[in-house]
Amino acid sequence: MERTDHHPLDALLARILNEPTWAAQLAEQTAVQLENGAPFLVVNLHVLDEACVNAAAIVLAGLPDIVADEASQRAAAITPAPRPGETGMEYAPRLRQAARGL
Question: What long-range pairs does 50-59 form, CB within 8 A, spacing at least 24?
Answer without folding.
Answer: 51/88, 52/26, 52/76, 52/79, 55/26, 55/29, 55/30, 56/26, 58/29, 59/22, 59/25, 59/26, 59/29
